Amino acid sequence: xxxxxxxxxxxxxxxxxxxxxxxxxxxxxxxxxxxxxxxxxxxxxxxxxxxxxxxxxxxxxxxxxxxxxxxxxxxxxxxxxxxxxxxxxxxxxxxxxxxxxxxxxxxxxxxxxxxxxxxxxxxxxxxxxxxxxxxxxxxxxxxxxxxxxxxxxxxxxxxxxxxxxxxxxxxxxxxxxxxxxxxxxxxxxxxxxxxxxxxxxxxxxxxxxxxxxx
Length: 214
Hints:
Layout: H1 2-11, H2 29-34, E1 42-45, E2 49-52, E3 55-56, H3 59-70, H4 77-91, E4 98-101, H5 106-112, H6 116-125, E5 136-138, H7 151-158, E6 162-164, E7 174-182, H8 186-197, E8 202-210
């Protein structure tokens, strides 16, 4: 097994999640210093409250996330998870019992071959030796939020898009809900509402990056 891992590292060496420097597992020291960190990582959104987002969605962060979501760069999620786990530990320590994520539709997952929010949640949870729970299911393959320009369109687009699953794990629990990017907050707002309606005691949200800073 060890020899197979060594062979894999030779054939597919790790890269920095942001600049692509070879041989770096996670984030290289240069990127750690120069990434566009949010001055105020807790972003207020209506009906969500404070959503944690440690990075601004610009420059190297934007490029890395676009490659991650649309060009099969799944390996970047290791570095993304490192940053998000540290931010969650600093701001939300002791405030949640379990972790879940905002899922993509079955069609979108088949097209991409993976669910980017699940991978981000998995790599974040790796730091706490737990696994994310699947508590939501996307029930319709609606238009991508990134294709819609107005706040109203985004809000209407996600209404009824999610349903709760494994409700016995939701009732009475404090849940950390993870997604990749915070824009208007429409997706997280709807997903959090579904969890609360299913009996969650509390839902707090975290994303890797925010498209604007409050």
